């Protein structure tokens, strides 16, 4: 079994080759902090508009209060999306502040999807805290998700400008893709075979579309042309796919101490992630043995009371992981992460932007792709 | 126990007094049919954009196919909202067709809320069919609801006009009120006392806000002034409150053969509807006896295994209904239905519109308020 740092190492090398002009880690920390500082007050005042008890539930979800209602300084996520939104305003030659309503709207849509997905997937933990449905029940998880989604459009549209209308249209398109992606992800769980292309499309919808929107929404609010906004969307979309490919690698071979998940996490959940579908599509003896094993696992899970294969020991997961690697699923996914990263960076050349902003966008991409887990 | 036709009779009389110039029932049927015919193809093509299996699930919800996937001609609702949206375009001097994207967007938001509310409330039947969560599971009920909500904004915004941006902003505001109303409704179930004003506000959010949007969105798309759009919103909002007051009366005293619900339906669900909160607020011996009985019911429900009071016989519900009536809750609610209806019709005078359109809006209001159940 390989370690998380080895997986990161492969990509760090790739990233350094591709983006030697990137800003350093300290620079990225400043960028993220800047995005958080500018967008947090607007996000908070938007959430404050929610009727009770939804305002409290949302505040718990964002980590501003604990389950008992006391002020907290919980983990609200890395805030990559707000940083991207503000940078994209600067890419269009506008002040970062112009991107703030976009940054807030994207964060609201992101958190709407987390609230609903956690409920649908039955996930009990998020950002090291119990999920909202677990603490406040399914009805409030649905309602607060709905409310954050509506609030996202509200925050944008109350700008009342033509640009805000364009931005809302792009955000709506991204939201629909997010929903499509979750529907695909759920339907894949019940299918024996998923094509690599289908998996990439699902991950593009689930992860790529909203990062694409984050990376362009500030520019749209700043009056960028459709072509420039499209270039930034392309950067964000492929950045999302690169991130997801690495996430899929870590979901199988990641070190639990670093990822905070169980060993073989995605194998336990029988996810049709990229390494798995690539290995199944590859053909050859290892691919065929893997297919036979996974088909038997599906049968066992269907007939078990809990609907999972929790009784497996480490050895059995290790066998499956080894077959995925032998069939080439791991190598293909690493390569795909590098290819998507390269496509993301190349998209930046389609737009004329200040060199300093371009360097920051590359630095943020490096952070997203090689980030600490 | 009074009959449904007696309840309708009270309001029919009121309606006829207020709106002797209203169009007749045949005219209303034509209006509703016209709204359905113009909006249905656009609604269908919007729903067709959803990724599989969400398109199928939505088609089932709208009654276009049955649970087995065969074409059906199910009840898709009365389509009052589309008719209102098209009429409101005509009120602003635009062709009815200008209101179509608004009609479709409002129907999409309405059905998004039905999908989520049925799941939250555990309702198993809607329009004489099993609800979506019952047939396709909770995850798809959440996802398809989310998708319809996103689609509503998409349909409006792809018009790409300033008017579409204004319409989307109003729709978003109405959607947030809808969500607030559902949150209030759920929280009221756990409270011993709810003020009449709180109940009216909740019903205004749950029923009034989207009817207000339906009644104005066509006008907004047709370029109406903010003042004219506000007048039409006021008409729709109070029409919604009048409808809801009658619905609350029917929820207690309605004839099951006519309403399609159980006898004492709202009492069985221990709803804090208008007659109940008005009776509790009235004071006096009947009000106090009612309060004591309902408090004991709440205790019994909390300690029962099913969480309800299903073991009650007809006599026990009849006692509660009689106390509500004795305390004046029924009379107050009837009066409130008439007052809200009058406010709705009066709002039409704040806007200069063709006489024929005004007559149709009054006719539609009569239909909504005195409608067959």
UniProtKB/TrEMBL annotation, chains A, B:
SUPFAM superfamilies associated with the record: Terpenoid synthases
Protein name, UniProt field: Polyprenyl synthetase family protein
A single MF term (Gene Ontology): prenyltransferase activity
Source organism of this protein record: Actinacidiphila oryziradicis
Keywords linked to the UniProt accession: Magnesium, Metal-binding, Transferase
Biological processes annotated in GO: isoprenoid biosynthetic process
Source superkingdom: Bacteria
Similarity-based family: Belongs to the FPP/GGPP synthase family.
């Amino acid at each position: 079994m390989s370690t998380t740092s080895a997986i990161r190492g492969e990509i760090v090398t790739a990233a350094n080759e591709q983006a030697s002009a990137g800003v350093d880690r300290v620079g990225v920390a400043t960028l993220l902090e800047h995005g958080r500082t500018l967008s947090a007050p607007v996000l908070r005042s938007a959430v404050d508009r929610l009727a009770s008890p939804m305002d409290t539930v949302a505040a718990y979800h964002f980590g501003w209060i604990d389950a008992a209602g006391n002020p907290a300084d919980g983990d609200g996520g890395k805030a990559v999306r707000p940083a991207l939104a503000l940078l994209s305003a600067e890419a269009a030659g506008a002040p970062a502040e112009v991107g703030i309503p976009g940054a807030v709207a994207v964060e609201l849509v992101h958190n709407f999807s987390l609230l609903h997905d956690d409920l649908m997937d039955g996930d009990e933990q998020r950002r090291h805290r119990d999920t909202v449905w677990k603490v406040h029940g399914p009805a409030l998880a649905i309602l607060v998700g709905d409310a954050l989604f509506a609030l996202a459009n509200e925050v944008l549209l109350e700008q009342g400008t033509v640009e805000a209308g364009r931005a809302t249209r792009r955000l709506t398109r991204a939201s629909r893709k997010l929903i499509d992606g979750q529907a695909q992800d759920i339907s894949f769980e019940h299918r024996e075979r998923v094509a690599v292309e289908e998996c990439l499309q699902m991950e593009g919808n689930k992860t790529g579309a909203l990062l694409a929107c984050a990376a362009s929404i500030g520019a749209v609010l700043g009056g960028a042309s459709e072509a420039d906004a499209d270039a930034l969307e392309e950067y964000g979309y492929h950045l999302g796919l690169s991130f997801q490919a690495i996430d899929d690698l870590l979901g199988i071979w990641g070190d639990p101490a670093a990822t905070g998940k169980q060993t073989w996490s995605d194998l336990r959940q029988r996810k049709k992630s990229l390494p798995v579908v690539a290995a199944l599509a590859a053909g050859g003896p290892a691919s065929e043995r893997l297919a036979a094993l996974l088909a038997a696992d599906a049968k066992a899970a269907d007939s078990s009371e809990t609907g999972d294969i929790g009784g497996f020991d480490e050895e059995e997961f290790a066998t499956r992981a080894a077959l995925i690697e032998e069939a080439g699923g791991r190598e293909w996914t690493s390569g795909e992460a590098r290819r998507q990263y390269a496509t993301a960076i190349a998209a930046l050349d389609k737009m004329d932007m200040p060199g300093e902003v371009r360097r920051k966008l590359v630095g943020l991409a490096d952070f997203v792709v090689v980030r600490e887990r």
